[in-house]
Amino acid sequence: MEVGGGEARTEVENKQIIFKGFIETTPTETDMELKLGNKIKLKAPKGSGSLLVKNLYLSCDPYMRGRMRENYDSYIPPFTPGSVIQGFSVSRVVDSDNPDFKPGDLIAGLMGWEEYSLIQKTEKLRKIQPDDIPLSYYVGLLGMPGFTAYAGFFEVCTPKKGENVFVSAASGAVGQLVGQLAKLHGCYVVGSAGTNQKVDLLKNKLGFDEALNYKEEPDLDIALKRYFPEGIDIYFDNVGGAMLDAALVNMRIHGRIAVCGMVSQQGRYDPHGVHNLFNLVVKRIRMQGFLQSDYLHLFPRFLEEVISLYKQGKIVYIEDMNEGLESAPAAFVGLFSGKNIGKQVIRVARE
Amino acid sequence: MEVGGGEARTEVENKQIIFKGFIETTPTETDMELKLGNKIKLKAPKGSGSLLVKNLYLSCDPYMRGRMRENYDSYIPPFTPGSVIQGFSVSRVVDSDNPDFKPGDLIAGLMGWEEYSLIQKTEKLRKIQPDDIPLSYYVGLLGMPGFTAYAGFFEVCTPKKGENVFVSAASGAVGQLVGQLAKLHGCYVVGSAGTNQKVDLLKNKLGFDEALNYKEEPDLDIALKRYFPEGIDIYFDNVGGAMLDAALVNMRIHGRIAVCGMVSQQGRYDPHGVHNLFNLVVKRIRMQGFLQSDYLHLFPRFLEEVISLYKQGKIVYIEDMNEGLESAPAAFVGLFSGKNIGKQVIRVARE
Questions:
Q1: Cβ–Cβ contact A296 with B under 8 A
Q2: Chain B residue whose CA is closest to A282
Q3: Segment B286-325, tens digit of pLDDT
Q4: How much is the ipTM here?
Q5: What is the pLDDT of residues B13-63, one digit of tens each?
Q6: Do domains B5-140+318-347 and B144-293 have the same CATH topology?
Q7: Could you tell me how many CB contacts below 8 A there are between chain A and chain B?
Q8: Contact B294/A at CB under 8 A
Q9: pTM of the model
C-alpha cells in the first residue's frame, strides 16, 4: 500500500534545531544548534499508532525558556540536552498509522523544531479544519497565545463594560488579543510596548485607545497616571518587575491583576523585586497567576468566538514571520529583547 | 432630669493622647504626647444626639500607623495633628442624648485615646450584650482583628479540610485566631513568630501543629520546606517581604495567599522587595488583599460562631494588657518590633 505519495518511499534529510544544554540566564543563539545530515523515513511505522508529519509553522514562545532550565519547578518538563527542541507547530500529516488521522490532514500541537516529526502521542493534537484563515494563526491567534489572552481576560480578569484595562507587552502574541477583546467588551484600553513602531501599531492597527513606549518614560508611575487619571481596574501583566510596581500604585479598589505565564520567564531573572504589594491590601486587589492549560474546557468556545470575530473583521493579528528553520534560534532569542513585532512564527515550509 | 449619676454633674479631668504630627517612618513614642489638664463635662448636650462615654479598653492596631501618614492613599483618613488619636475601644455610656443608647450601655467602636469621649456619630457603634466574656475581647477576638482573621481565612483563603496552612505573625491579634480556625477546619497549621516564647505559645497554648522562630532561621525557604515538605496550600500573610518570598517558593499548585491589612503597614517601609512572584504563574496562585470592612455582612455570623467556640473552650485568645492611658504610646510603638505577646490592649479604667 502506498501512503502519502512519493515522499513516503524515500529517506529525506531532516534538519533539526538541537538544545545544547541547560542554562540559567537569558537564552542566546549558541544555546541551540542547527543539525544537518539527519535522515528520516517519511513513514509512520506499522503498529505504532504514530504520525509522520511535515512541519509548516513553528511557534517561538517565552515559556520555552523555562524548559531550558534544569531545575524547572513547573508544569512542563525541561528539554533534553542534545535532543531536538519542542514547540507548538502547525503541521501536515504525511503518513499515518492512526485511524484518526490521514495524510493531508492539518494538525496543531507540540512537535520538534525540525522539518519532519514522528509523533507517537497523538492525544493532544488538534485537527485544523481548512478555512480561509492563515494556517500560522493556529500557533498564535487561535493557538496557545490567543487562548491565554482569552482565558486570562475573561476568566481571570472578570471584566465589566467600561472598566479601565492596562496591558503590558501589548503588541506581543498574547497582549494584542487581550487589548482587542477588552475593546470589544467595552473597556478603555491602554497598552505598553518597547518601541515607537509598536506603539503606533497598538493605536493605529490594533485599536487600543492609547499606548506608551515604556522605554521613553522616565517614571512609569507618572506615565500610568497620565493615561489612567482615575486608575486601573484590570492589569493584564505580561512583564512583572518595575511595570507591575507602577501598576500596583495606580490600581483602583477591587482591581484585578492577571499574571500571565510570560512573567514566569521574565520575573525569574528580574533583580528589581516588587515593592508596592501593600497596594493589594489598601485596594483589595486580586492578583492571580494562571496558565491557559487550566481552562481547556473553554477552548472550543474560544475557537468559535475568535474565528467569528476574525471573519467579521473585528479582530486582526500581527505576526512576525521568519523564513526557514535556520532562523528559529535567533527569532526565539529575540523574544527576550522585544525584537519581534507581534507573534513570532517560523515558516519551515510552504503549505 | 438626672442622667448618669454623680459623674454627670461635674467637670472632670480628661487625659488624652495627642497625635503630634505626620511621620514617614516607624512610629516612636515621641510622635504622641500625653495631654493633662483637659476638662470635660460628663454630659451629652441636649439636641446633639451624641453620647458621652467612659473608655475602658483601647486597642493598639498596626493599621493606625497608616493614619499617621499625611498622604495615606487608603480606606480611612489620616489623623489630625494636634488632635487626640482615634482607635477601637470598649466604652461605657455615661450620658446619652440618643434614644438608642442609655447610661450603662457597653459599646465598641472608634473612640479617642482619652478617658472620656463625646461621640457624635453613633451609626457604627456596636452594643455589647453583657456576657461572661472578657470585655476587652470586643477589640480583639470579637472585634476588628478577630473578624479580619475570620473573613480572611474563610472568605479569602477558601480553605478545605486537610490543607496545609501557614500563618505569619501567628501569635498576633489576627494570626492566633487564623491558626485556631484553621485547626478547627481540619487543616495542618504552622505559624511563625519572632521569639521562642511566642513559638511556645503557638504550639502549647494555641494548638498550632508546629511553629518556628523566623529570627533563628538562616534560610526561610529551607525552614518552610522543613515544615511543609509537600508545600503550602494557604498562606495567611501578616508580614510581606522576605517571608512572602519564602512562602511563594513553597506554595502548592492552586494555592491561595491572603494578604492581610497588617502588610499594608509593614510592606510600605520594607526595602526588601518581593522577587518570587513568578511562582504565582507556575503554581497558578491567587493572591488577594483584603480588608475586613468589605465583609461586614458576615459580622453577625462571625460573632455568633466565635462566641460559641469560645464558650465551648475550643478557642483561646492571648492578650497583652497594659495598664493606664499613659502606657498607650509605648504599647503602640511596641507593635512594630513585636514586643507585644498576643493582642495589645490598654486598660484605661476598670469596668
A1: no
A2: B74
A3: 999 999 999 999 999 999 999 999 999 999 999 999 999 9
A4: 0.91
A5: 999 999 999 998 899 999 999 999 999 999 999 999 999 999 999 999 999
A6: no
A7: 109
A8: yes
A9: 0.93
Contact between B120 and B50 under an 8 Å Cβ cutoff? The reply is: yes
Q: What number does CATH give the domain B144-293? A: 3.40.50.720
The rounded distance, in Å, linking the Cα atoms of A40 and B172 is 67
C-alpha A101, offset from chain centre? 26
Q: Considering CB atoms only, which of B73, B282, B289 is closest to A75?
A: B282
User: What is the distance between the alpha carbons of residues A19 and A27, in angstroms, rounded to a whole number?
Assistant: 11
The pLDDT value recorded for residue B74 is 64
B-chain CB neighbours of A266 within 8 Å are: 278
The CATH T-level fold of domain A5-140+319-347 is Quinone Oxidoreductase; Chain A, domain 1 (3.90.180)
Cβ burial B112-139 (10 Å sphere, 16+ → b, else e): bbbbbbbbeebeebeebeeeebbbbbbb
B75 shares contact with chain A (CB less than 8 Å): yes
Residues of B in contact with A282 (CB under 8 A): 73-75, 264, 289
Using the beta-carbon criterion (under 8 Å), do A282 and B244 form an inter-chain contact? no
Alpha carbon of A164: minimum distance to chain B alpha carbons (Å): 19
Dump the DSSP string for A242-296. HHHHHHHHHEEEEEEEEE-HHHHHHGGG--S-B--THHHHHTT-EEEE--GGGGG
With contacts defined as CB-CB under 8 Å, which chain A residues touch B259? Answer: 277, 280-281
Q: Band the pLDDT of A265: cuts 50, 70, 90.
A: confident
Residue boundaries of the structural domains of chain A? 5-140+319-347, 144-293
Question: Superfamily assignment of B5-140+318-347 in CATH?
Answer: Medium-chain alcohol dehydrogenases, catalytic domain (3.90.180.10)
Measured between CA atoms, how close is B119 to chain A, in angstroms?
27
User: Cβ of B264 under 8 Å from any chain A Cβ?
Assistant: yes
**pLDDT at residue A264, rounded to an integer:** 73
